[in-house]
Request: fold
Amino acid sequence: MPGLMLLDTPSLYFRAFYGIPESMTAPDGMPVNAVRGLIDMIATLVRGHAPDELVACMDADWRPAFRVAAIPSYKAHRVATGDQEQVPDTLVPQIPVIEAVLDAVGVARVGVPGYEADDVIGTCTARATGAVEIVTGDRDLFQLVDDSRPCRVLYTVKGIRNLQTIDEAEVTAKYGIPGRAYADYATLRGDPSDGLPGVPGVGDKTAAALITRFGSLEAMLAALDEGVTDGFPAGSRTKIIKARDYLAVAPAVVKVAHDAPLPDLDMARPVKPRDPEALVALADRYGLDGPLNRLLATLAG
Reply:
């Protein structure tokens, strides 16, 4: 499905870091497992999907203030000190190398102050005029699937060589909800990995039943306000009434932004390096000849 491919870059380089031994090092002994792994991931994706456009979406802010203001527990368990995320010490110095490699190769790389990579992905998707494929290990981005565009997620849960394609039918099959209703479902159910409490006492099955019955969170709340009792599983109506304060703010946290202020981007997939000299220097400094040669051959082909 040629079109626009959006990379959830932090998701991918974390996966590479944990999937490849730290014994993979630069000539000076610095671990470069995440760098090498991400380069090979991109080569595999380009070879298998041949996108016309390619964007590496970044976290300029991993825990945006607008989400924390709405729900203070948002990602609070992942804070190291101050506003810094818990990141392995040996991964931290690899991130600037990843950014430098992407820039030298010519892959569009973008992060927006105050927004997460998810929001960059959501905004790029909203602006796209053709097919979109999103590569991520984050289920939150299932909310963007849309068969009419089409927009689908290439889910990395089983590895980059065994991607699971998530479209509306797959969302329905997995969660028993309408294909575009994942954000509303996740709001009700909550997500401990992001510090989102959800509605106490409402689990996967009840959340799915409610969203399927009413079609959306907004429609469910409207029915509640109108005194409707039919369609609420036993005890769930009372639980939702008690959680109205949470439900008033949670959608702004769960839903990815569609209007982040993106800079102008040349999204075209590169066929040759943007900065060959810088790329040679990076290859020599960090011992990246093998993966970079594989990536460049794939891009050129």
The longest strand covers residues 4-8. The chain has two domains: 4-175+257-300, 182-254. The first helix runs from residue 9 to 19.
